[in-house]
Amino acid sequence: MFRxxxxxxxxxxxxxxxxxxxxxxxxxxxxxxxxxxxxxxWGIAQLQLQNSELANLVIKMDTPNPPAHRDLLIxxxxxxxxxxxxxxxxxxxxxxxxxxxxxxxxxxxxxxxHEIETTKLDLQNNPQVSTYILNKLGxxxxxxxxxxxxxxxxxxxxxxxxxRDINSKYSxxxxxxxxxxxxxxxxxxxxxxxxxxxxxxxxxxxxxxRMEHEIASEAEKATATVRVxxxxxxxxxxxxxxxxxxxxENLSERNVAPSSMRTLLNMxxxxxxxxxxxxxxxxFLTLGVDGLALDFSEFRVDELLTEIVGDLHNDKSRVxxxxxxxxxxxxxxxxxxxxxxxxxxxLADNAVKHAETMSIEMGFDVDDDEGHPVLEVTVSxxxxxxxxxxxxxxxxxxxxxxxxxxxxxxLGMGLTIASGLVKRLRGxxxxxxxxxxxxxxxxxxxxxxxxxxxxMVALVDQAQEDVLDAKFTDQRMLVIDDQETICLExxxxxxxxxxxxxxxxxxxxxxxxxSRHMYDIVLCDIHLAQDDGFALADQLKIxxxxxxxxRIVAISGYMTSSDFIDDPRSFxxxxxxxxxxxxxxxxxxxxx
Length: 592
Prior knowledge:
- The chain contains 16 helices and 15 strands.
- Strands 2-4-5-9-8 form a five-stranded mixed sheet. Strands 12-11-13-14-15 form a five-stranded parallel sheet, sandwiched between helices. A three-stranded antiparallel sheet has the order 1-3-10.
- Among the domains are: 154 residues, Histidine kinase-like ATPase, C-terminal domain (Heat Shock Protein 90, 2-Layer Sandwich); 116 residues, Rossmann fold, CATH 3.40.50.
- α5 crosses α6, α6 packs parallel to α12 and α13 packs parallel to α14.
- By secondary structure, it is of the alpha/beta class.
């Protein structure tokens, strides 16, 4: 309670002190003490200035270029108006108006002006009149100086009288106010000293918080720098990677000499590894953007896990150990299939890296958590396990576990991505690990149950993706990309699908090609060197008119599917670089 005392006493003291001052010197006394708003000297100064102006005009009458008689009359009229202003009772003359000296000065000024007026200011060839007028103007000057003196004296007397009045009538309150002021100062000093110890205690805490904030700020800056660097590297690598991916696929379709087969396989594995890293970077950067898009659909969990196992075995960049899916009831759920696949794939991929030759087990189940269905997926390996020192950091970006003096494979982002996706789905991710006994990751994500009758939908869709649709035969395609190597490899890939392919490197040639030929499919890079792919697509769409046959598909290494969905403009589809033959066929099947 004592600590709140300053908050109560200080305002009361301030209010009492201010109230006393306002009572001690009310508004009317303050106004009277400082005098009128308009200075009393101002009217006299105006009179003297105009008097000097008229005198100068009179003197100039003896010069070769004398002033006009009209100018003399105007100057005299102004002088009379100035004299009239100070001869009237007003706010500025109130306290001196009744003084005899003031009234005598006004009378002398008026008399002198009257005598000047009788001359009608007829000074032409009349030096005696000029001398007479100058003498009278001198009398005006003398009288105005006496008025100035009396104004100063009476002003001082007025202020002295007011101060004496205040001292005589309000001395007790004044000294009381002084005591309150001194008490206020003393109380302020006392409470300031009382708070000083608390401030010293808080200073250390504030310094610690400031240092913590600075460290967090530096960490955020470092993370932002890393994100920008990764985004730049990823984008710059995707275009040349498209050439490598497509070129290797084109080579694999040809008869390769046995001596060159091993080299081709090694190149495919290296490209697959780089592509995986680029995908990881893309996923990591996507997690850094608020509002990651979710797409809910119904699917069978066992089929999804089987698909993941197949993808792991198809990874040509490494040897995959045995992966077993424990038996469970057939379950169909509704959630984001792609995100669940990314989560489980990253966990299984991490297990493959650390299980070495040991087997990996994947299991799933759907149980109820307070009446809400929850999908639980486990990924277990019997590898070296994770040490207690590494365990708290495995979800940190770029962290890689050290084992047997060897840093783990990968970029250290797989578990970070999995953890971020689980949080986006409002789920949880737990890990248990023992050294030399293995590791188990458990994912729990809220889902909706759905009828098992929908179970075959995903499998049928997946099977359709793997089938080369014969409808591409004899179709005509235009490839628009500023990288000629990409154009050549994509042309070869499309030719292997039975298409007739043309390619151009800029927007002008693209518009010309579309004016000469009717294309079934146009692959257009969004970020051309000298042109805007979106604007080009808009122009091509307008040029097509009522033609609904041509499909314009965007390709880019600088944009993700989520970014494209926000504003597709005139494009009918999107394929992110680098893409494979299978991905190209799947995307084209989806829009044609």
